[in-house]
Amino acid sequence: MAQDIETTIDSTVVQDNDDLLRHAGFRLLVLSGELRGREFDVTQDLIRLGKSRQCNVILTDESVSRVHAEVRHEGDAYRVIDQGSTNGTFIGGARITDGFLRPGDVLALGRVQLRFMPRDSRVELLPSTSENFGPVRGKSLAMRKVFGVLERVAGADVTILLEGETGTGKDLLARAIHEVSPRKEHPFVVVDCGASTPSQLEAELFGVETGPFSGQPPRLGAFEQANGGTVFLDDVAEIPLDLQPKILRALENRRIRRVGGSDEIEVEVRVVAATQRGLQEQVDASEFRDDLFFMLAVVSCTIPPLRERREDIPMLIEAFSRRLPPGMWRAPDPEAMARLVGYDWPGNVRELRNVVERSAYLSPNGVIDLITPGSRSASHEAPVAFDPTLTFREQKERAIELFEEAYLAWLLQRAEGNISRAAREADMDRKYLHKLLRRYGIDAKQYSPHANRGNNS
Fold first, then answer.
1. For residues 162-172, average pLDDT
2. How far apart are CA 361 and CA 327, in angstroms?
3. What's the CA gap between 327 and 119, in Å, rounded?
4. What's residue 212's pLDDT?
5. What whole-number distance in Å separates Cα of residue 298 and Cα of residue 159?
6. Alpha carbon distance 316, 82 (integer Å)
């Protein structure tokens, strides 16, 4: 019965189809405020939204003006026009006075958020009203959508796949899922699928049967250790292809066979898996079995990178700072906070936590900022040259570009042109590393030890 639950983080499949909107009208789903969960079906060519009883869609929140905005059907499009509201009208987080809505857009009137979608689209799971799931925090809509899905399925005995870049908190979410499930009194066992050879990984998962005359007890694997609890398969995309059928059989039959053994052992576990690589892409490239993918992705949830939820950065800085000894840190000033919020954070939340802790120890006054080890001594040896024709933002962007280009060259030289190795050493998502290399026109192959072999022969 549990395996019948199938959803994704975007559980509403919003059809980007203007014909559907034109003929069937549209629906506004309230995502926040007192009317959270309320739906308004709209078929008219012109509607007004606001607090007034004269409006077609009445929103009672105090942040909404009497006649806040109107939505007009114009040809194949829907146009939203702000009516001089006090607290503004927003589409996708951007304030507008006149703009166009597409299916799936989030329309915000003051503090009230509404999802714009075709009337016959499937009902979506609402974002959570909470700003945390276990130790993972976030008030952005992107994270509250994640929390909303996990709140719905954590108590059900379904397999969950967490996808997202390194440092986004997948391991913390996996443990939090276990802690709110009926299995919380039983073990939570972590297996790092990318840190072992195939034979070591098989033994770690299924255990090893010792000989009858060895006098040693069998070595239990993760499935037996976690019996009754949860097995967390971290970096699941790295499981070798020849081991994947054994894992599939274990999940399907709830039975395992130790390495070197012949007896099947019944196990009763829940599996939560995580990957920083797109598992569907691995399936399409024949690098991962599709049947195992479907078994793992009964519920699939993508954790957004920090650069896509920048509004969470101040609250995360506050949370990390509070863990430091009293008096060791000072909150960022407005300029420092602007730098922190504007930075792309390739290492995501983990990198932000490290910056907060590093600032407390290395900053001369304990102010949280993007300081790097050795930056103070380096500044005495080689003062930074500034261009008086550039603004502060332009100067900062140039400095970041110079740093990134130099760092990428140094990183690839250390990794001998191996992008996977470079990404691991930098604790950076491979896709993001590829993006940076394309931005600066850097060819990783030139750093390979074999790159110049032909020229030296």
1. 92
2. 11
3. 55
4. 65
5. 6
6. 33
Which pLDDT band, with edges at 50, 70 and 90, does 92 fall under?
Answer: confident
206 by Cβ neighbours in 10 Å (0-12 / 13-18 / 19+) ranks as buried
pLDDT of residue 384: 52
What are the structure tokens assigned to 376, written together?
């103070």
Q: Which amino acid is at 424?
A: R
How far apart are alpha carbons 428 and 351 in whole angstroms? 10
CB atoms within 10 A of CB 116: 22
Pairing verdict, β 98-101 and 112-118: unpaired
- Alpha helix stretches (DSSP H) within 73-228: 141-153, 170-179, 198-206, 222-225
Ordered DSSP codes for 230-244: EEEEETGGGS-TTTH
Rounded distance between C-alpha atoms, residue 437 and residue 293, angstroms:
30
Under 8 Å between Cβ of 254 and 268: yes
CB-neighbour burial class of residue 309 (10 A; exposed 0-12, middle 13-18, buried 19+)? buried
What's the confidence (pLDDT) of residue 412? 85
Task: Please choose, from the candidates 106, 99, 119, 92, the residue with its C-alpha nearest in 3D space to the C-alpha of residue 27.
Answer: 119
Closest CA to 106 of 96, 93, 97: 93
| CA neighbours closer than 13 Å in the CB half-sphere of residue 162 | 30
Question: Do the strands 230-234 and 188-192 form a parallel or antiparallel pair, or are they unpaired?
Answer: parallel
User: Among residues of the chain, what percentage have pLDDT more than 70?
Assistant: 83
The label of the residue with tokens 């255990």 reads 207
Helix, strand, or coil (residue 16): coil
d(CA 255, CA 266): 4
Full-model pTM: 0.62
Angle formed at CA 433 by CA 432 and CA 435, multiple of 5 degrees: 60
**Are the C-beta atoms of residues 53 and 20 closer than 8 Å to each other?**
no
Q: How many CB atoms lie within 10 A of CB 71?
A: 23
C-alpha Rg value of the chain to the nearest Å = 26
Give the strand order in the sheet containing 69-74. 57-58, 46-50, 69-74, 77-82, 98-101
Amino acid symbol at 254: R
Taking only the tens place, the pLDDT of each residue in 26-49 is 888 888 888 888 888 887 889 999
| Distance between CA atoms of residues 276 and 170, nearest Å | 9
Secondary structure of residue 78 in the 3-state scheme:
strand
Beta bridge mates, 137: 132
pLDDT at 99: 92
Owner of token pair 């599709």: 290
253-257, 389-393, 444-448: least confidently modelled range? 389-393
The tokens for 298 are: 């009964």
